[in-house]
UniProtKB/TrEMBL annotation:
This is Transporter. Belongs to the sodium:neurotransmitter symporter (SNF) (TC 2.A.22) family. One of its GO terms (molecular function) is symporter activity. The lineage of its organism: Bacteria, Pseudomonadati, Bacteroidota, Cytophagia, Cytophagales. It is found in: Membrane. It is a multi-pass membrane protein. The keyword Transport applies. Pfam families: SNF. GO terms for cellular component: membrane. The chain crosses the membrane at residues 12-34, 46-69, 90-121, 141-162, 174-196, 216-237, 249-273, 293-319, 340-360, 380-403, 434-458. PROSITE patterns: NA_NEUROTRAN_SYMP_1 (PS00610), NA_NEUROTRAN_SYMP_3 (PS50267). NCBIfam families: Na_transp (NF037979).
């Protein structure tokens, strides 16, 4: 009877479609629709898009397969997965980092998601908002953040098939319908051609080490590798599932949303605000786009839809971020799902407050700063984003590739991928093992060395 209860607490995906939607949902998030367009704007337009697609295909996709295989082979959370497959305490640190990354990123990511909830309301009632003033008003931002975290908690409480799978099957199609509608509206605006050309016609002279670094960092961030999300979701997969096919769908859906995100932003920006610098940074979506919508006929409706889209994208990601520490508590601490979800959710609410307050100039949390190999990180939010949302994720990717590629028998993980995917043999199998053992670790080590300033000035991805 105890075994049945444990299985019920852990859960299992009811279908491959459910897994693909949930895993694609965890990958598709603010990284695709908020972060991707402003990085394109800051890194030379089409040149960045080209490098990003290469990074997804040859680095992020092999690592995605690696994590799902590790999860399904072990049937455990990130820490348990490494322990179950014979990893010692050192390698289990990668799993510990996964749980920490998901918890800490969930706390500050929910602040941005809270902004989207606020903008849905202001667009519906058609009241212009000054972004700089809005984020400096904790009376709005903190309750909106808490509301968003509560929504995430309620879905995760439903379990794997009853909560996460059911929500993802509904939310992902909604996300695609809205994004296709807005992108369709943007590309048909008069003058949109200049934006489309800027976005999709690469100027290869703009490709430099900094652009490659940013594209690689975005591929990790966007595809949700190095977070333990895919290990955890993989652990809920039955052995008959085709991991290789599912991973292809996840990568395809994730990249499609990112590319459509750019098609929403740049054609509209060039058509309606000619002369506006596309390199507007993180404020591009919240500051520039509402002005773009305001210039459209019926723009506040399009604006409301856009911010609903952003909220849905954020929600599909935070569901999985919360699930990783919850799965750890269920597996290793033998907590019930209800206790684990509420405890971690409320702790994330408390930790979200410093991130929200760090947007207010002059406050203690805004003035916090650290030096990372000469790279100055400012504000509680900025420090958290770099340490957990960027650097730790890249270190985890390296440790997992070295663990499965060198500390374990990589052929066992290739065998795991072949279960349910009989076509995964010959050059496909050899190619995947070669990339995980050699290419991915070398590229990630070069990325880390660049971040700490070995090749010149230290750069944050």
């Amino acid at each position: 009877m105890a075994v049945n209860n444990e299985t019920e607490e852990r859960g299992e995906f009811g279908s491959s479609l459910g897994f693909i939607m949930a895993a694609a949902g965890s990958a598709v998030g603010l990284g695709n629709i908020w972060r991707f367009p402003y990085l394109v704007g800051e890194n030379g337009g089409g040149a960045f898009v080209f490098v990003y697609i290469i990074c997804v295909l040859f680095i992020a996709l092999p690592l995605l397969l690696n994590e799902i295989a590790l999860g399904r082979k072990s049937g455990k959370n990130p820490i348990g997965a490494i322990r179950e497959t014979g990893g010692n305490k050192f390698w289990q640190l990668a799993g510990v980092l996964c749980v920490l990354v998901c918890f800490f990123v969930f706390s500050y990511y929910s602040v941005i998601a809270g902004w989207t909830v606020g903008y849905i309301i202001t667009e519906i009632i058609n009241v212009p908002v000054d972004f700089a003033e809005f984020v400096k008003t904790p009376l709005y931002v903190i309750p909106l953040t808490f509301l968003f975290i509560l929504m995430t908690i309620l879905i995760v409480l439903g379990g794997v098939s009853g909560g996460i799978e059911k929500a993802s099957k509904f939310l992902m199609p909604v996300l695609f319908i809205i994004i296709i509608f807005i992108a369709g509206r943007a590309v048909t605006l008069e003058g949109a051609g200049a934006g489309i050309e800027y976005y999709l016609k690469p100027d290869f002279s703009k490709i430099n080490p900094a652009v490659i670094l940013q594209a690689l960092g975005q591929a990790f961030f966007s595809m949700s590798v190095g977070w333990g999300l895919m290990i955890t979701f993989g652990s809920y997969l039955p052995k008959k599932s085709n991991i290789v096919q599912s991973a292809g769908w996840i990568a395809g859906m994730d990249t499609s949303v990112a590319l459509l995100g750019g098609l929403m932003v740049f054609p509209a920006l060039f058509a309606l605000l000619p002369g506006k610098d596309p390199a507007a940074g993180p404020a591009l979506v919240f500051d520039v786009l509402p002005k773009v919508f305001a210039a459209m006929p019926g723009g506040h409706i399009v604006g409301a839809l856009f911010f609903i889209l952003l909220m849905v994208a954020a929600l599909t990601s935070t569901i999985s971020m919360l699930e990783v520490p919850v799965a750890y508590m269920i597996d290793d601490r033998k907590w019930g799902r209800k206790r684990a979800t509420w405890t971690i959710g409320i702790a994330a609410m408390a930790l979200s407050v410093p991130s929200a307050l760090s947007q207010i100039p002059g406050t203690f949390f805004a003035n916090l700063h650290i030096n990372f190999f000469g790279n100055r990180l400012e504000g509680f939010f900025g420090i958290m984003d770099f340490v957990f949302g960027t650097f730790a994720v890249i270190v985890i990717c390296l440790m997992l590739a070295l663990y499965t590629g060198w500390a374990s028998k990589i052929s066992e993980y290739a065998d795991e991928l072949k279960l349910g995917a009989p076509g995964f043999k010959g050059p496909f199998r050899m190619g995947w093992m070669f990339f995980v053992k050699w290419i991915c670790p070398i590229v990630i080590i070069l990325l880390i060395l660049n971040m700490v300033g070995v090749f010149g000035t230290a750069q944050a991805a």
